[in-house]
Amino acid sequence: MTGRPGAERARVVGPxxxxxxxxxxxxLAAARAGARHGLRTVLVSDGALGGDCTFxxxxxxxTLIEAAAEGLPFPEAAAxxxxxxxxxxxxxxAGVLRREGxxxxxxxARFSGPRALSVDGQSIRAKVVVVATGxxxxxxxxxxxxxxxxxxxxxxxxxEELPGSIAILGGGAIGCELAQAFxxxxxxxxxxxxxxxxxxxxxxxxxxxxxxxxxAEGIGVHLGASVERVEQADLxxxxxxxxxxxxxxxxxxxxxxxxxxxxxxxxxxxAGGIELDERGFVRxxxxxxxxxxxxxAVGDVTGRLLFTHAADEMGRLAVRNAxxxxxxxxxxxxxxxxxxxxxxxxxxxxxxxxxxxxxxEAGGRVAFVPMSEVDRAIAAGRTEGFVKLIAGPRPLLRGTxxxxxxxxTIVAPRAGxxxxxVALAMRTAMFTGRLAQAVHAYPTWSTSLxxxxxxxxxxxxxxxxxxxxxxPVR
Length: 474
Known about the structure:
The protein has 13 helices and 22 strands.
């Protein structure tokens, strides 16, 4: 949600109990939470409600991924994608919000003072303000990039025809997901990543599995060198990427997927007393409060876990903290340690908590089960993944009951569903041994979790939990 100059009018709307800036996942969650708490709530959005996730993120990308896996032609997949986006958007439009007790104001918001907003000349005041303006695609300062017609997640889903070839700048989640989808539709795809592996935030073993899958599917992967120049290669419209190692890559289209930047430009945060960090994200404490009294920040604009489900959790939590009857004693901190995320490639890569390298200082131990030892994976002919569980000592009780779970990575066709069993165990501070004790239906993918958890107590299939190391033991 950004601001724009306009003629100021004296009309004041409110006062409200709660004003929310931004209609994405975090803003919607905060506004709905406010209405449920009986607060007079207004949500200000400069675009269609639903934000990035509904229109240019999760919903269209996952629809395309599913359609590609089914082997649908690209035009049919694009039509399905538009229909799904419309269906999801209809559940969160202004009419729906108003029926739920949330007033909706369409326009550009900026701070005009403490807990005071100007929306296209209209003044809005509230006791509590939640900033949920989200993020935008980051565009790196590469020579010549601004002179070519490149795509981002905000424009790639507008394509009507399948490109014959596409280069994807960035080997993170967005780049890898769309690389596999476009390849399965029939495009020639090349992924360019400056780090030495795909998905550099994930476990090295997960990166290795995905690299093998990409190689088998014919996706070109170029690692370990940055792109220094982009130019139009010929009159036919091909785009050339020149890398720091002297190599070059050509494609009909270029998708830039190198991360996100905060959407705080034009917000006039300073007028509201709100501090930004060196990258432009809103500074918020663990209770999601900003430097300004009564102003909270949620979602991507905070720079913490840029995921829809994290924004949703933050939105509801911010309202709870702002309205806590016991004041600061009734607040709850936003804890990222048990919030999972998924990269929706095939196989899926799911993660929660610490990696093995991060768990070394915590005295972590690691259990590892390759999918080649899981009967369901063998039956399905999908043995390219693994389960990695990381456990550490509990306060006082140390390793009793296997200790507590610190993190997990799962690579499997249904990893995105499997990870929540671990997330629940972590959220409830469950003994690791409970996973080993829980009877799992056979043969399911989730039996691999029980197999892994058993390694903290005994040797199974010749494997026993080992101390965490950095880099991880291969």
